[in-house]
């Protein structure tokens, strides 16, 4: 692999926009759009933890960006650009970095973002990647986890649970003849661009599992959430697997859909804001604490784990 500076010049500098100064200075110089507030988020991906050895570097790059883009979507922010850090094994083939850069470029074009800068180093223990995404919102319009109110309805975008089934397929634990689950796991679709300010009162993305991420809204808003497992939307492929995968779907994570607290009477406004993206009501917030998931029989479900554990 070439040295650090030639590697940056060859693969990463072409991804930098005007604010990144061609990656030739120590920092970027960025002027946010007038009258907007900055929103920042950072996420990392580690080989063997967030992706498997030997997987397509272009898809790894795109998922790295999309995990962070989903955080911006949950705050109602429009993406602006990103910082990137890489720690790569010295023996990593050069074509890996070429594929990684190609994936970054592809999603830069899709989401209209640019590389602003970052850092690179070598690694003794596998590939480590971090992206810091910057976005903007109108002043005071950022969606928070603490805004839910008793009586608000709980809605989710898209379908829940495909990504964990895809992870199982990638690990050889599940058959995936069409590749649908695998694709959903490798390349999530962050729900950026939805104009939700003034419609929803709280939001979070489903990164660690529906039940666990919903619990964050509950804790921050001082409420109890009651949802019906049978209402949680499933793709046709997941629905065909039935009850066998229900707990995994509710707790598996990596879907990067949105959980939304929606005041009564705003359902039609929510659907209009989401356009062709399906949204589904799955429950409501009420006074109390914790998350209650009701089975089809109306009894409260118990879970071995509420979601992904980072430690």
Written account of the structure:
- There is one protein chain.
- By secondary structure, this protein is an alpha+beta fold.
- The mean pLDDT is 92.
- The chain contains nine helices and ten strands.
- The strands form two sheets. It has a six-stranded mixed beta sheet with strand order 6-8-5-9-7-10, sandwiched between helices. Strands 1-4-2-3 form a four-stranded mixed beta sheet, covered by helices on one side.
- The chain has two domains: 4-137, PurM-like, N-terminal domain (60s Ribosomal Protein L30, Chain: A, 2-Layer Sandwich); 153-294, Phosphoribosyl-aminoimidazole Synthetase, Chain A, domain 2, CATH 3.90.650.
- Helix 3 links the parallel strand 2 and strand 3.
- The chain has helices at residues 4-12, 57-74, 94-111, 162-170, 180-186, 210-221, 236-239, 246-251, 267-274, and strands spanning 37-46, 78-89, 115-123, 128-137, 153-157, 202-205, 224-228, 258-262, 279-286, 290-294.
Shape annotation: globular
CATH architecture of the largest domain: Alpha-Beta Complex
Overall structural domain count: 2
Question: Could you say which structural class the secondary elements and strand pairing correspond to?
Answer: alpha+beta
Strand order of the largest sheet: 6-8-5-9-7-10
Taken as a percent bin, the fraction of beta residues is 15-25%
Q: Please report the total strand number as a whole number.
A: 10
Distance between the termini: 33 Å
CATH topology of the largest domain: Phosphoribosyl-aminoimidazole Synthetase, Chain A, domain 2
CATH class of the largest domain: Alpha Beta
Helix content: 25-40%
The CATH homologous superfamily of the largest domain corresponds to PurM-like C-terminal domain
Unreliable segments (pLDDT under 50, ≥5 consecutive)?
A: none
Radius of gyration, taken over Cα atoms and rounded to an integer in Å: 20 Å
């Amino acid at each position: 692999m070439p040295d650090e500076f030639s590697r940056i010049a060859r693969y990463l500098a072409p991804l930098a926009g005007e604010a990144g100064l061609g990656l030739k200075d120590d920092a970027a110089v960025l002027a946010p759009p007038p009258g907007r507030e900055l929103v920042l988020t950072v996420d990392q991906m580690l080989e063997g933890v967030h992706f498997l050895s030997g997987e397509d570097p272009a898809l790894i790059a795109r998922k790295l960006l999309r995990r962070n883009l989903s955080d911006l979507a949950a705050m109602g922010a429009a993406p602006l650009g990103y910082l990137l850090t890489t720690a790569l094994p010295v023996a990593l083939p050069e074509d890996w970095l070429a594929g990684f850069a190609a994936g970054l470029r592809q999603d830069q074009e899709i989401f209209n973002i640019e590389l602003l800068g970052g850092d690179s180093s070598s690694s003794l223990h596998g590939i480590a990647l971090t992206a810091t995404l910057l976005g903007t919102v109108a002043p005071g319009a950022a969606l928070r986890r603490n805004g839910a109110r008793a009586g608000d309805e709980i809605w989710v975008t898209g379908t829940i649970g495909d990504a964990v089934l895809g992870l199982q397929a990638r690990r050889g634990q599940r058959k995936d003849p069409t590749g649908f689950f695998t694709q959903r796991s490798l390349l999530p679709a962050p729900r950026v661009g939805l104009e939700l300010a003034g419609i929803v009162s709280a939001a979070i993305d489903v990164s660690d599992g529906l039940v666990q991420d919903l619990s964050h809204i509950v804790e921050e808003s001082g409420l109890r959430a009651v949802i019906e497992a049978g209402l949680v939307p499933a793709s046709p492929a997941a629905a065909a697997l039935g009850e066998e995968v229900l707990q995994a779907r509710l707790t598996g994570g990596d879907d990067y859909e949105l959980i939304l607290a929606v005041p009564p009477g705003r359902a039609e406004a929510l659907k209009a804001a989401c356009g062709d993206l399906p949204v589904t009501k799955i429950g409501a917030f009420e006074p109390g604490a914790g998350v209650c998931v009701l089975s089809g029989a109306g009894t409260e479900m118990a879970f071995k784990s509420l979601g992904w554990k980072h430690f």
